[in-house]
Design brief:
With about 240 residues, the protein is α+β, with helices and mostly antiparallel strands. The chain has two domains: about 130 residues, no CATH class; about 50 residues, no CATH class. It is built from ten helices and six strands; from the N terminus they run H-H-H-H-H-E-E-H-H-H-E-E-H-H-E-E. Helix 1 runs antiparallel to helix 2, helix 1 packs parallel to helix 4 and helix 4 packs antiparallel against helix 6. The protein is globular. It starts with 6 loop residues before the first helix and ends with a strand. The relative contact order is 0.10.
Length: about 240
């Protein structure tokens, strides 16, 4: 396949093949052996890096879930940690983990903890070369983690990646954010709290919700974060953020 020679087409083909349950092995092998210089030429822009790493992450997250069948629930914390932290993804002669792609390359070298404010220490030369220059919080709405709030997985293209991300965000917010006009309260998934530094803090979260019409433009709501109650359904966390002046 000639498209295998192009890293951007290769990542898109890999995710499409995984989504359609095709044979992904030849594509995985080609991605593993691609020359670093070729990858450098292909990932010259923000849009190219963004679409490439989103496709790689979502393809391998699904492949590894099918191959390993890890316990990612509350009782399988060790399995979950190993699943995301273990180097299992060969790209351009380098072994990466899902955490490397999400937090190193897509979030511009940030820790998965620390509410989005702490940098990853000692990023590799590969990470420094191919990561996004800035953390784009929209990536949180495009990654498949096999959790309840995951969006539908799309194949991203450099030309349309920004518009495609906006579509994913609009779907996510419509499905997962509720606004109570009487109480002036917005109930949001916990990823907003977990990565609030990516959004620019609590006021940045409110601005994000306004931008995508999840709350009215003329409001500054109190934020309440959902929590997963494993004995029942989703419940609302008692902790709330009041961002009113």
């Amino acid at each position: 396949m000639s498209t295998q020679l192009d890293p951007l087409s290769l990542s898109a083909d890999l995710l499409y093949t995984v989504k359609t349950e095709g044979d992904a092995d030849p594509l995985r092998e080609h991605l593993a052996s691609i020359e670093r210089s070729q990858l450098e030429r292909a990932l010259a822009s923000r849009e190219e890096k963004l679409s490439f790493w989103l496709n790689c992450y979502n393809a391998y997250a699904q492949l590894l879930l099918e191959e390993e069948e890890p316990d990612l629930g509350e009782g399988g914390l060790l399995d979950s940690w190993k699943f995301f932290a273990r180097d299992q993804i060969p790209v351009g002669g380098v072994w990466l983990s899902l955490n490397d792609i999400e937090h190193g390359l897509l979030r511009s070298s940030k820790q998965p903890w620390g509410f989005g404010y702490l940098p990853r220490l000692f990023p590799s030369s590969f990470e420094r070369q191919f990561r996004l220059a800035d953390c784009d919080p929209r990536v949180h709405f495009a990654l498949g983690h096999s959790s309840e709030h995951c969006p539908p997985i799309a194949v991203y293209s450099p030309r349309d990646v920004d518009e495609e991300l906006d579509i994913a965000i609009e779907w996510f917010l419509e499905e997962n954010v509720t606004y109570d006009d009487a109480a002036n309260t917005a109930t949001v998934p916990r990823l907003f709290r977990q990565y609030r530094g990516d959004f620019g803090g609590k006021r940045g979260i409110v601005g994000f919700l306004r931008e995508y019409n999840a709350v009215p433009d003329d409001t500054t709501p109190v934020l309440e974060y959902e929590r997963v109650d494993h004995s029942a359904e989703l419940d609302v966390d008692l902790e709330a953020d009041d961002v009113r002046p």
